Amino acid sequence: MKRRNYWVLFAILLLALINLSPSKQSTLIRNEEGIIPEPVSLPNPKEVQEPGHFRVAVQMNEGEFLRLQQWNYEYMNQFADQVELVNLPSGESYRDLLQQFELGESPDVLLLDNVWIRKFASSGYLLPAERYYSSPLSGEVLSVTLGQNEWNGYLWGVPFDTDPYVFAYNPALIKELGLDHPPQSADDWEKLLSSFKKQSRIPSLLAVDISEPYAALSLLWQFGGNAAAGSPPFEMSEGMQRGIRYLEELRPYLLRYDTEAQSASNVWKRIYDGEVAICLTRSSQIRDGQHPRMEAFIPDSGNTGTTMWSYGRSFVVSSKSPNAEAAGAWIEEMTGAGRQREWHETTGHLPVLKSLYFEFERNKIPAWVPASLVGSKPDALPVGSLLPEQMEQFARLTTDFMNSRLTLEQYGKEITQIGRDK
């Protein structure tokens, strides 16, 4: 009896040992039930990632393009990416580029004027900047520049530079015309214009390329037009009506280098010789005309919002680009603080990084750049996908008005219609 019990106990122990032993089948079942196997060592994706090959299209003058080419060569020598940099002909419009996007033939990266960012983004041709650009933008970049890059809750471009309109003037002539400082309000312009009409020694009060719509819009803002932040630019307010009247009064006293083919150097010489009191131009052009008898200023916006238009350019990435990540790394290299500082020293275009404005001497930022440029609000300039077309209409109307092909009343009615056209 005892022997039989031993055999039973032996059989039970044998079965227990068999159940406790691992097998291929039991391991497979347990893995399928969610037990994680030992981790497998994988290669670093950066080690096996193929070098990027993408195309960047810009539209620059020869000097600017040569400097960007140099930066691009330096980038390719440091990284494995191959970047084809193309300078588009000056006659090629953004509408031509839109057609390339429609046909799927667009460059991977494009340097756009900020006013066109929303047009391209709303058409579905761009990637949100957050998809390819790793550095934070908000807080460090000029708000007025970021505001033009926003649409539908996203940022669609990485700001590269800014180039606001400024006034260059002869201080002695301004004082001769009865002001201790250049005009900074509509009332100052009224006093200056009234004083100018009473004298005959100074041939021209203002030099301006009136065919530039943003120059004309800046003048209207200076004369009392819709300068408040967020104000519709073409609404026929009382201030806009007054601005148009001033523009008409100023017409006989303009040196218009859009029609007289005046070169910039000739305008600077006329300011120096006392033949022109003020010139409206972009800040990047001021450096070429600097001399002891010329100063520059940007009217401080204060609480009124906009006073002068500020051009700006930003890098964007095509939504069809297969190299968005590599393109973002290239853009980050081209827009860093060191590059911004060098770009300003080389071209005169102002940087978009706020930190560079707090060390004027080191970064060679002109002392006449007001603090309001750094502290400007995101909505200081009008933005919208229709703005490029609206400004083209405004340019044609203003040219006709300044050439007396439109009356004051006709000009006002046509401007009002711009804001109503959808």
TrEMBL record:
Molecular functions (GO terms): maltose binding
GO biological process, alphabetically ordered: maltodextrin transmembrane transport; maltose transport
Keyword Transport: yes
Record keywords: Signal, Transport
InterPro entries on file: SBP (IPR006059)
Gene Ontology CC terms: ATP-binding cassette (ABC) transporter complex, substrate-binding subunit-containing
Family recorded in the similarity comment: Belongs to the bacterial solute-binding protein 1 family.
PANTHER family: MALTOSE-BINDING PERIPLASMIC PROTEIN, MALTOSE_MALTODEXTRIN-BINDING PERIPLASMIC PROTEIN
Protein name: Extracellular solute-binding protein
Source organism of this protein record: Paenibacillus woosongensis
